[in-house]
Amino acid sequence: MILVINPNSTREVTAHIDRSLQGLRFAEGPKIVCDTLLTGPPGIESQAHVDGTSERLIAYFDANPQHRDAQAVVLACFSDPGVYALREILACPVLGSAECAYLSAAARGERFGVISILARVVPRHRRQVRLLGLEHKLAADLPIERGVVALSDEEATFGRMREVGSTLVTEYGANVVVMGCAGMARYRKPLQDEIGVPVVEPTQAAVAMAIGRVRLNWVG
Question: How many domains does the chain have?
Fold first, then answer.
């Protein structure tokens, strides 16, 4: 079983993540289970939110010891909150969706762009890109200035994502676009159709990698 945890408390986000993973479910593959960290904030939108999530995630596994038997754990948040803390306490692979999305995008094209929710999260994203050694691949990281909860307004959100995605492609030369929030999952296919380049959804990227690790019996 692959456990996908949404570290914010918005169940609607989890539901959309779950639906976006349907194409990765198949008869011979591992079961994919999505859950919500109900003690988390409604949206992880600041460094303080990220910093406060590790202890909540550890408490989640203390309260749900059966999940420690998962074959892999995926953090469905583009800030990868708690990823290092969980790697210390869990025996299975723990995959951060942002890390997997960046690596997938870097493998797919020469330059990738990122659509972020808010301007204040961009420096945090850029730090992770530098840590991964992928700064030379980053075309730009641009915000739509909508928080996680506001992403549920589909008309306004998709309009901004289409605008920013097109700018990344036409003005910054991105030939791959990464959606910088797991709450954007429902918009991947329509956005890709609109802007004409591959669009990477972070949780899909992480779960795809998790399936590979489970199927190939890679440990650690």
Answer: 2
Give the structural domain span for 12.
2-96+204-215
Do 103 and 55 lie in a common domain?
no
**What span, in angstroms and rounded, lies between the C-alpha atoms of 63 and 67?**
9
Name residue 34's beta-bridge partners.
Answer: 4
Assessment of whether the complete model's pTM goes beyond 0.85: yes
Neighbours of 67 (CB within 10 A): 17
Dihedrals φ, ψ of 200, to 5°? -100, 125
Produce one character per residue of 75-96: b if its CB has 16 or more CB atoms within 10 Å, e if not.
bbbbbbbbbeebbeebebbbbb
Determine, yes or no, domain membership for 220.
no
Across 107-211, the runs of DSSP E, i.e. the strands, are 112-116, 138-143, 176-179, 199-200
Residue 129: pLDDT over 80: yes
Token pair 């506001």 is found at 150
Mean pLDDT of all residues in 9-18: 93
pLDDT at 44: 87
